[in-house]
Amino acid sequence: MPYVPILMPQLGESIAEATVVRLLVAPGDKVENHQEVLEVETNKATMTVVSPCAGRLAKWEVEVNESYPVGAVLGHIEAEQPVSAPSAPAPSAAPAETQAPALAAPSSVSPLPPTIPPQKVEPRVKGLPVPADRVGATYMSPRLKARIQELGLQAADLAGIAGSGAGGRVTIEDFERYIAHLEQQKLTPASPMRVAVADAMRRSWTRPLATVGLPVILDPLLEHRKQFNPKPGPTLYALRALALALAENSAPAGRLVGARIVHPPAVDIGFAVEAEEGVLVPVIRSADKKSLAELAPEYDRLLRQARARNLPANATGGSICTVTNYGTFGLIWATPIPLPEQTLVLGLGAGRKVPRWDDAKGQFVPVMEAYLTLSFDHRVLDGGAAGRLLTRIAALMNQPQSL
Amino acid sequence: MSITYLEAIRAAQAKALADDPRVFIYGQDVGAFGGAFKATKNLQQEFPGRVLDAPISEDAIVGSAVGAAIEGMRPIIEMQFADFSTVAFNQIVNQAATLFWRTGAPCPIVVRLPSGGTMGSGPFHSQSMEALYAHYPGLIVMTPATVEDAYSMLLEAVAIDDPVIFCEHKFLYYHLKAERLPETALPVGRARITRPGRDLSLVTYSAMVHEALAAAEELAAEGAEIEVVDLRSVKPLDTDTVMASVARTGRLLAVGEAWPWGGVTAEVVARVAAEGFNLLDAPPQRLNAKDTPIPFHPNLWAAHRPTARSIADAARKLLRL
Hey, what CATH topology would domain A142-183 get? Predict the structure, then answer.
């Protein structure tokens, strides 16, 4: 009987590898076609790999806790039936991927109009120029780049090194000294989740980000939520208000690519969920087209799945902006960073009882107030547009019956 | 007892004549006169009929040697100065270099080129021709920098079936000395790490090896460890040793006494840039003679060729990049 390889499937957009967490069957075990045989963890979620055919597991080719690239042979099934050609395991995520907005796909972006040619850096010394990179990072020699790549580091990791070369550049000797110094300290591996968050934040930080904020009164919303079961939380109210505001005008959620704005194709909104050692962002699709009553159970389900690190592949990615409730940490104000592929992130602070002047009564009255913040890519919109969007969101939250 | 670079060349020719009856020496005044630099002194008396004076026609000399090689002989040709080999250029690059590739018959000739500058020699008696001949497939180009290499490489040149251009440096003839002649040698085509170091690779050959060593000594006092690589033969060029050295140091300075345009230093830099780009921590550099004919005046000549001082300056600049 032929041996059919179990391949690491494409588990989602921009996922190149996954770590084997658990082997669900042992060599010699009988397996059905599409039976779950292996559990793997990516930087987004834990998923299972299924058997490509029915038969017996002949051999595992992997070790638990090791990472393997997409397409790697994980093991072999001794097939029951002769198979003409082992079909590549169809990733369950595939339909979701095609559904996902093609925002990030380079092919969907038509050639950009010609821009101003980059300024030429004139060498100062004949044949020996070491121009400072205009992006900000200093010049890196080919050897330094190769060494950084070899060690799996990023340019940002060089921030702590004082360069001794021309123009303050970090020479290979500076770098090796720094690495040797690091090795003498306590080092523990960062989790895949931590590394993924670090990568996203590093990429996002290449843009000029700004934050605006204003207070919102929560009392109407807290009264309104009582009629539902499950009860929607303030985060969901904020998410729904953001969805409606963007449905009225989606321009603030657009992305700037070259000299053009890419408009969001649908109001799919993510919300940040703290998971062990990182953050997951499940997505509510077309949040502008569903009522609060419809959204509440969906929100609760995604929250549970995210906390269990069990999100389906189609429940992440492709959102146009994100809501984060940093109030759960007791914070009243923060400046969150939007995801690299997003322009906006809406933040919600902790609610507090505060005195508010009531003109009609002529006295201070206690209200529940929280700060709403909007962090944005300043290349796409300015303080005015951000302020108008945030004011509109606050107004919608003050009229919860409209949500 | 000590032996000079020139005496080692004479000794190697004597040994080649003694060991192999097919070997003979042919050149202008190589017989009774003993050669322009006395590299064949007394060889005619020691080996009667095998050290032959030639007419003043380099073209005819090499042409005759190619014919003798076809007949099974192994001639050693002496050019009085490397500069004059251009008169025999057609015979060397069109006849000798291609013979085996055209006919399958080997062309085991050695053309000795007294090369490089000495004080006051001027444009016609100072040239370094190695890049010119290295350009042609079919030729081996040796550039010994030591007494031992001059001896062992000349013997190997005679033994090799390919035509060999043997670039012996006139500046080293008299003052470079060794205690004794070697009994073993590195194979041809293998470079030597003459001085190990970890900060910069100084890749050079022939007389410039000694200028490079002096520069390395000067820089050692400043705390820089310079690795000096002696290519020994520029064709074949030992890319592996050069690349391994650059892998250790991350910095390359190629030095040659010849002109810069399309020369050996350019080839070294090109190979390291193409195959070892990721080894470089600074732009690869080279230092050559000035791109003008070689001046007569001793002061101009000293400024024209790379020296220990100019090599040290270039290395210092590269170390600070």
Answer: Dihydrolipoamide Transferase (4.10.320)
Please, what is the end-to-end C-alpha distance for chain A in angstroms? 61
CB A219 within 8 A of CB A352: no
Cβ atoms of residues A12 and A317 within 8 Å: yes
List the catalytic residues of B: 125
Interface test with B, best of A124, A171, A175 (most B CBs within 10 A): A171
Q: Which domains does chain B have, with CATH numbers?
A: 3-178 (3.40.50.970), 192-320 (3.40.50.920)
Q: Is the pLDDT of residue B24 over 90?
A: yes
B285 and A127 within 8 Å at the Cβ level: the answer is yes
Give pLDDT tens digits for A12-67: 656 677 889 999 999 999 999 889 999 988 777 788 898 888 999 999 999 998 88
Q: What is the mean pLDDT of residues B151-165?
A: 98
User: According to the CATH classification, is domain A1-128 in 2.40.50.100?
Assistant: yes
What number of other Cβ atoms are within 10 A of residue A322's Cβ? 23
Peptide bond into B236 cis (omega under 30): yes
Which of A127, A130, A142 is opposite residue B277, by nearest beta carbon? A142
* B317 and chain A in contact, CB less than 8 A: yes
- Residue B230 DSSP SS3: strand
- pTM of the shown model: 0.68
